[in-house]
């Protein structure tokens, strides 16, 4: 189902607009860089779980930056291959990955630095989840659903009624 919209192309329920793509890349890149920085600050601790959370947060930030902005990771030889592979993935897969990468450090150690850094990675995952859900329906279909009128059922009943007409000569 492809139809032109004002802002972009709708492909299977996903509206791809230029500003939303840049928003996703920007939030992902900024969130990943800040997750690395805040993960480094979170590693300055006396508890082992918070140290682990800081390291996991830095790894999560690196993965997000690698997937969103491979130009920031020019020292990694395979960064372009990974980025092109991740661009071909559906948005729900990135949403799940980023949300999990954001939740694990927060579940390990609840501190301000962990919540700030990993929370931004989680927000990037939530934005990808919104992209995966797609655009809501048009006004007419939303009004039909709200009114309780089931148009598809009426059409199906009318079609079935036309198919079941009895022949002119009934055999006993």
Oligomer: single chain
Q: Total number of helical segments?
A: 7
**What radius of gyration results from the CA coordinates?**
25 Å
End-to-end C-alpha gap:
49 Å
The run of helices and strands is EEEHHHHHHH
- As laid out across the biggest beta sheet, the strand order is 1-2-3
Given as residue ranges, the uncertain stretches (5+ residues, pLDDT < 50) are 1-10
Largest sheet: 3 strands, antiparallel
The residue fraction in helices comes out at 55-70%
Structural class: mainly alpha
Strand proportion, as a percent range, falls in: 5-15%
Give an account of the 3D structure.
The protein is mainly alpha-helical and 172 residues long. It has seven helices and three strands, in the order βββααααααα. The chain has helices spanning 18-42, 48-68, 79-87, 91-108, 112-133, 139-147, 151-163; strands spanning 2-4, 8-11, 14-17. The chain has a three-stranded antiparallel β-sheet with strand order 1-2-3. A hairpin with a 3-residue loop joins strand 1 (2-4) and strand 2 (8-11). Helix 4 (91-108) packs antiparallel against helix 5. The chain is elongated, with a radius of gyration of 25 Å. Mean pLDDT is 80; it is low at 1-10.
Characteristics of this structure?
172 residues, mainly alpha, three-stranded antiparallel β-sheet, 7 helices, disordered N terminus
């Amino acid at each position: 189902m492809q139809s032109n919209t004002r802002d972009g192309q709708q492909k299977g329920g996903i509206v791809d607009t230029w500003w939303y793509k840049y928003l996703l890349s920007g939030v992902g890149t900024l969130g990943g860089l800040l997750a690395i920085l805040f993960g480094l600050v979170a590693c300055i601790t006396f508890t082992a779980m918070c140290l682990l959370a800081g390291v996991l947060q830095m790894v999560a930030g690196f993965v997000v930056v690698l997937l969103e902005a491979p130009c920031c990771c020019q020292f990694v030889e395979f960064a372009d291959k990974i980025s092109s592979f991740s661009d071909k993935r559906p948005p729900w897969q990135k949403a799940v990955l980023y949300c999990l990468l954001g939740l694990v450090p927060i579940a390990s150690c609840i501190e301000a630095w962990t919540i700030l850094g990993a929370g931004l990675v989680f927000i990037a995952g939530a934005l990808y989840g919104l992209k995966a859900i797609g655009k809501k329906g048009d006004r007419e279909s939303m009004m039909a659903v709200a009114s309780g009128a089931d148009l598809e059922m009426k059409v199906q009943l009318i079609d079935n009624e036309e198919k079941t007409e009895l022949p002119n000569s009934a055999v006993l």
